[in-house]
Amino acid sequence: YGLKGDKITEPNPIEYQNDKVTVHSDDEIPSIAIIPFRNKGKEEDAFYAYGICHDLIKDCSGAGIIRVASLERIEELDDLSVEKKAKKLEVRYIATGTLWKMDNIFQLSIELYDSKKSEVIWSDNWQENWDNLPTIKGSLSNGLLKVLDIKPKVEKQFETTNTQAYEYFLKGKHKFEKREHTEDIEIARGFINRAIELDDNLIYAKNMLAKIIYMQGDVKKSLDMYGKNIEQARVLNDDYSLAQSYKYKGGELWEESKYEEALDNFSDALTIFKKLDSRHDMINTLNN
To answer: Which Pfam families would you find in this protein's record (predicted)?
Structure first.
């Protein structure tokens, strides 16, 4: 409700039509590529931008009726212009942004470009305290999904409120995904272990640890860990992490030629993703 009175200047909505954000309203399914944010701070802080963007892609992918380009495909087109990326990736929207960590403050900006209209349809910039690190990704995904007129039907997964744990998780994920040497895997494992020590309910961190352990050759330990992650996700009522745990376990069982067990796990994952209406995850599971 707006305030009114003789001494109050009442805003006229007509005067703000040029600045109004128009949500996606076409019949086509919205499609988007989320470009890894540009790190404007120190090189050692690059993991923040990469990790938050990685989680943002995951959130938007599982939000419902939306097609999101994979990070792997996006990184293959690193040197192309926004317009060419949209064409190559066959998406209508391109999201870009910057992140700058200064002491305990994050400066963030984001733009959403509509390749069909050849214009930026939404932009925002703000700052967050370091303590709010776990909520940054949520703020970004909420903004993007509102502009794309996507309403997630369910809350997908448990989110940590432990900033230090989330920071270690981002460090570990970045080190693992960008690994160049064998020792990088061990460093990544150390970061992930530290995150789990600080927050034992980080199922997505535990799934990543199981993946690393598998890569290091301990198949039994990895599969046992996925089993424990499945049980813990049930206790937490964390359906999304439960489905992810089934899917990852199924993938490893398949690699070990245990096809029937693998299919059972894929089937369990698919049932949960269907309940969550996470179509992107359903397609990925079916592809497995």
So the answer is: TPR_12
Q: Which pLDDT band, with edges at 50, 70 and 90, does 6 fall under?
A: very low
Across 3-17, 122-136, 167-181, the highest mean pLDDT is recorded for 167-181
Token pair belonging to 84: 């060419």
Q: Are strands 119-129 and 105-114 parallel, antiparallel or unpaired?
A: antiparallel
Strands 93-102 and 67-68: unpaired
The yes/no answer on whether domain 31-147 falls in CATH 3.40.50.10610 is yes
Distance CA 188, CA 262 (A): 27
Secondary-structure class of domain 163-287 per CATH: mainly alpha
In the numeric block, which tokens belong to residue 260?
């029937």
Instruction: Among 29-43, 51-65, 186-200, name the most confident range.
Output: 186-200
At residue 154 the predicted structure's pLDDT band, cuts being 50, 70 and 90, is low
Number of Cβ within 10 Å of residue 3's Cβ equals 8
Predicted TM-score of the model (pTM): 0.78
Residues 6 or more apart from 20 whose CB is under 8 A from it?
none
Distance CA 176, CA 51 (A): 11
pLDDT (0 to 100) of residue 2: 44
Q: Is 181 exposed, middle or buried (0-12, 13-18, 19+ CB in 10 A)?
A: exposed
Would you say residue 101 has pLDDT above 70? yes
Parse the chain into domains and list their residue ranges: 31-147, 163-287
Q: Give the number of other CB atoms < 10 A from CB of residue 178.
A: 12
Residues in the chain: 288
Joined together, the tokens standing for residue 160 give 């940590």
